Amino acid sequence: MIKKVQLPLQTLNLVLGFMVWVILSSLLPFIKEDIAIAPEKLALVTAIPVILGSILRIPLGYYANLIGARKVFLISFVLLIPPVYYISIANSLTDLLIGGLFLGIGGAVFSVGVTSLPKYYPKEKHGFVNGIYGAGNFGTAISTFAAPVLASKFGWSLTVQFYLIILAIFIVINFFLGDKQEKKVKAPLLKQIKGVYKNVTMWQLCLFYFITFGSFVAFTIYLPNFLVMNFGLEKVDAGLRTAGFIVTATLMRPVGGWLADRFHPLKLLMFVFAGFTISAILLSFAPSMTWYTAGCLTIAICAGIGNGVIFKLVPTLFSKQAGVVNGIVSAMGGLGGFFPPLILSTLFNLTGHYAIGFMALSEVALASLVLVIWMYYKDKLGLANQVISHTTEGIMITDHKGKIISVNPAFTKLTGYEGEEVLGKNPNLLKSGMQDNRFYQEMWSEIERKGSWQGEIWNRRKDGKNYLEWLTISAVKNEAGEIVQYAGMFSDITEYRKEV
């Protein structure tokens, strides 16, 4: 029973964490009426919670493996009570910055569930499960929409204190329903980091999540104030529209995970970053409210799907270091939400518009698209190389002039020659002398006519012993129809021939 409730429980935990994480950005239009905040400091106030919310994801992901999700969520919610109360009585910019920094704990709990929940499900469901958990992003929508409504009736200070009650309730729920028997993974943090920090694939995933989740966070904290200032919307209306962005991205996250369970994740990311590129270009032209809405919603869809896809890839590629890799990747995503609002604010102060910032997003997304395409074809090539390396048949590849350029381990096993002994040489070093020149002339004549040849041939091993092999030679042509390589595949049939 306890294990069955972990997915809904931890998802609700994330909802609460994200609700707390965006308190300041949700209530900033109200807060700045009581606390004097210079225009150039507004972006800093909304971005500051992202700092700790990003950095802490690494240790929280690690400790979720070490001591279990139950304890990490409990400790996190207890630690959130002081900063939430401190913000409710804040009366200066400094108070907001200090309290906001520690609100980051709410965003950091993300790495707890994505580390813990895959333990309860088979691999083929990891994408969908992490997608469901990631839908806890919905917490930002709840705060963005509900907090302004409550603040209109009760004031922003009392609204913040409502969060204290919810935190207390969830502390009790986690104490009783959290899984005390969760499987623990005890490996030193530094050892895990050393095992992955040189892994190129992990840093590529970091870049992708920097864009997908970073854009989600950035738009969440930037839209409420932007819509009020740039389009003159009412504060509640701006909150409702921002909530629409958040809900769209949130609903798309489990969809992305579900799709990644069924289709190649890298193919899905191609569509994601193509959508980002086009939408960001549209936003850079400062369009009307209608087109601006279309661009933002497209980014919401791409961000949600991308987030789900990426956290299908993490546990699949890094099962043994899932905790720390989840932490690192999600930390980079959090930082992706910290810098854009500050950059957009600075660019607006310098140029009077946001065009350059959105154009920069489109360029980074385009670069990511190119990288994903490269990774996809590299992955296909790597799979082909694995097949060649592990096949029991000997494989030898030559250039069009007949010089050996590649052999596989089975070639060495069958012939006795190491790769370095034959590379650059002609395959005739394997000749046994048992076939005359006419045999070889007919063989190559058939290859030229048909593109391949197949049959029995006697060859000689390095130790001088002859053996009978079944050989297939195929001509490899380029798009122009020119032969660029020859591929030979063979197996030893000497013993089989004796039995026959």
Automatic annotation (TrEMBL):
> Is the keyword Ribosomal protein in the record?
no
Domain Major facilitator superfamily (MFS) profile, first and last residues per copy: 5-380
User: What SUPFAM superfamilies does this protein map onto?
Assistant: MFS general substrate transporter, PYP-like sensor domain (PAS domain)
The record, for Gene3D superfamilies, names:
MFS general substrate transporter like domains (1.20.1250.20), PAS domain (3.30.450.20)
Give residue ranges for domain PAC.
Answer: 453-500
> What Pfam families does its record include?
MFS_1, PAS_9
What is the membrane topology noted in the UniProt record heading this document? Multi-pass membrane protein
Q: Which UniProt keywords apply?
A: Membrane, Nitrate assimilation, Transmembrane, Transmembrane helix, Transport
- PANTHER family per the record? HIGH-AFFINITY NITRATE TRANSPORTER 2.3 (PTHR23515)
Family statement drawn from the similarity comment of this UniProt entry: Belongs to the major facilitator superfamily. Nitrate/nitrite porter (TC 2.A.1.8) family.
Name-wise, this protein is: MFS transporter
- Per the UniProt entry, what species is this protein from, by scientific name? Metabacillus endolithicus
